């Protein structure tokens, strides 16, 4: 097979939301006979090694892991930390960007030594486009978000440039040039759009110089949001997480959910009725004020529905829980501390709804599991994803968040009544809930078809491999 002569370097960004899909992507390319090399830092290598070893042992893949050192102190990270989960604010700072740039030299050295045929790089490494050019190989970019969000981001930049933004932060304006009519307020736009820092400007230029874009999505989910809107040749090859076919793969996926945590969680879900539980998780980076955590707790309690809440117990968050909260809700609610086996949870038949921050991976994982959402966007492109889920796909309801910010204090408080009301709409037995459930299950079936032989994503990956083989230097 021609693909067996192809060697691709993958350079994931240092956060779970970018790393996990790229690990899955490397596994999928390897499944198709490609030699895949993941390049990352030591702490991150330790996180993903188990998952790669499993793929190599059970699937006979050819995935290798190469390491480059990360200057934690330059990034403002605690010593020895090399992942965005380790910093107090999930924002990508100037210091962090400066540290990422220091990976260039060691990366370049590895490219020289191993001579890959292509680089698939996260968008946060704009310099990989120059490294690839230096060695005469194509660079594809991966942003971690879906095609809709990328198109909405471009439309927002355009609106900013043309001064189409309204002066009032809370007044809605239309994002022109998209297949669907989407309205945003300025307060829902990421900082990246409203006041783009200099160090992020290189990203736009490097995207334009890239060979193309690889997206974790499937054509049937975002029709009309491919090449024509992104402005670059785009391959939708997802949902990538579907490559984790057995329970062990879904449990050990990059980050390691402790065996005990997984057991406890699944045992508890087994005791709950089908589609009765609301799963609550806000991704790997979220932080909330204590006031907000309290409102979430009370909203969940008042909703009366069973819930499984993944709680990030950082900086005294524990004290935010209302007194006696866990005792009062024992049996009906489970508070899980630590890293949850999200794919296993979403795939459990007891789960009937997902309160999510609309990170793209979580959104896609809900869709592929056929689970409707309570959409609670917090920062980055999450408000675009909320619009997509609620207005375009109509498989979720908005909790009513209004301010996009990585700083928890800057976000407007979402009261317990809002939480309760949104949960009731998704978990209740009303017509709206039934229609959402039906639609999301249809999408789940389409997602599975897309990655099967002959499906759109499977074919798209095949086309990309052929194209890259054709580009190989003799
Ligand atoms: N995740 C998980 N367990 C957790 C929290 C997150 O497995 O306790 C996974 C989740 O399944 C998803 C990723 O981490 O694949 C988070 O990515 P997403 O884009 O949803 O959000 P981010 O963390 O980047 O904000």
UniProtKB/TrEMBL annotation:
The keyword Transferase applies. Its EC number is 2.4.1.-. The keyword Lyase does not apply. It comes from the Eukaryota. GO terms for molecular function: UDP-glucosyltransferase activity. Keywords: Glycosyltransferase, Transferase. It is an enzyme of class 2 (transferase). SUPFAM superfamilies: UDP-Glycosyltransferase/glycogen phosphorylase. Belongs to the UDP-glycosyltransferase family. This is Glycosyltransferase.
